Structure formats: structure tokens, C-alpha cells
Amino acid sequence: LCRRRLPELVPESLVWGEEEGYSAPGPGGLWVVDPIDGTSNFAYGSPLWGVSIALIQGADIIVGAVALPDFGEVYSAALGQGTYMNDQRLKPIPSGEIRPEELVSYCDMTLTTFGPERLPGKMRYAGAFVIEGVWVLKQHFRGLISYKANVYDVAAIVCCAKELDADVRMADGTPFRVDELVAARCIEKPFVVFPRESG
Question: Rounded to two decimals, what is the model's pTM?
Fold first, then answer.
């Protein structure tokens, strides 16, 4: 359905989905789609899964949407237009440091790679990037660190988070360049979605 309908919305756009492999961007841009993020959660009956869709044009993520069907929630954003949960506009993520008692999403690979003394907050992990991402948007989690993700997993959340004034960057401080990441087809280095001025 996504492969058929999305290019109809934006002429000359192409679709890169997790299930059927990479497509280079078309003149109208590139839709990146993860039809079920959190497949294992879904398979075992957990509600912690979702659908992620975003449109990339050049260096920008133009629109992003995440649907969490088991919660009845849809998160959506468009460049310069803010972020919404269903029809409710979300408030910007408050800037400032991440305190030791605040929750931050990262996985065991991040923990073993960097060590607990170098990571902020208290570790939490839901097993689906879309869940961790929306919990950052709602500030259930103060931030997240992602390692070895794919562009189609993260683009929609990145669009939504940037519209809430989050600091989205590679963990080494370099910019998160979606055009470069699409060209590479994966995100080899860790990146963060943190509050601004978090240190």
C-alpha cells in the first residue's frame, strides 16, 4: 500500500522500505518506510511497535509520521510546521542538562561500547525506535542514543524531534546529515536526540 500510494502523493518520488530494499532518491525525493518497527514486539503481542514514514528531499526531512496502532496515536510533523500527536500540537522539548534520575533510551550495545560512566541518565530500552522516539517527543524519556539504526527507522522521529527544538546530532558532535546517511544506506555511528544545551 505504501509503495503504491506514497509516490502518488509526490510525483517522481521513490520508496525505500525495509522489506524490499534500497532505492535511490527520485527527482521528487525519497520516501523511507518501516512498516513494522519493533517486529519482535509485534510478533509476541507487545503493543510497543509502530509504522514509520518520512519524505526526504535533498538535505531535509520534509515530513514524518509515526503511527502506533495499539495506542491509537499518530505523530506527524512537517518542516517548519511543528509536531502533532493526533490533532494536539506538542510543546517544545525543554532545554537543559539530563539529570541522573531522568530516563534516556539506549541499548545494551551502547552500554557495553561506551560504558555506564559516559552515558547520561537512567537506561531504558523498549525494543522499537518509534516507541523510544515518541516517548522523547512526549518527554517520558529525556533523550535517546541510537546505535546501528537505519535511516528508514529514524527519519520520521528525527523530523518530529527537530520540530520540537531537539538537538539531533551524531554522538561525536558532528551534524546529523540525512542526505549523507541516505547515500551510505545506514547509520554506522551513534547519534543522539537530546534536549538543547544538554552538555
Answer: 0.94
CB 171 within 8 A of CB 191: yes
- Report residue 154 as a C-alpha cell: 529514524
- Is residue 166 classed exposed, middle or buried when 0-12, 13-18 and 19+ CB atoms within 10 A define those classes? buried
What are the start-end ranges of the E strands in 9-58? 13-17, 29-37, 50-57
pLDDT tens figures, 182-196: 888 778 899 999 999
Inter-residue contact 145 to 192 (CB < 8 Å)? yes
> Exposed/middle/buried for 81, CB within 10 Å: 0-12, 13-18, 19+?
exposed
Q: How far apart are CA 31 and CA 28, in angstroms?
A: 9
Q: What angle in degrees, to the nearest 10, is found between the helix axes of 151-163 and 129-137? A: 0
DSSP state of 71: G
Q: In DSSP terms, which residues pair with 133 in a beta bridge? A: none
**Nearest CA-CA partner of 199 in 83, 57, 98, 92:** 98
State pLDDT tens for residues 52-102: 999 999 999 999 999 999 999 999 999 999 999 999 999 999 999 999 999
Contact 118, 72 (CB under 8 A): no
Q: Give strand pairing partners of 169.
A: 175, 192
What is residue 192's predicted lDDT score, i.e. its pLDDT? 95
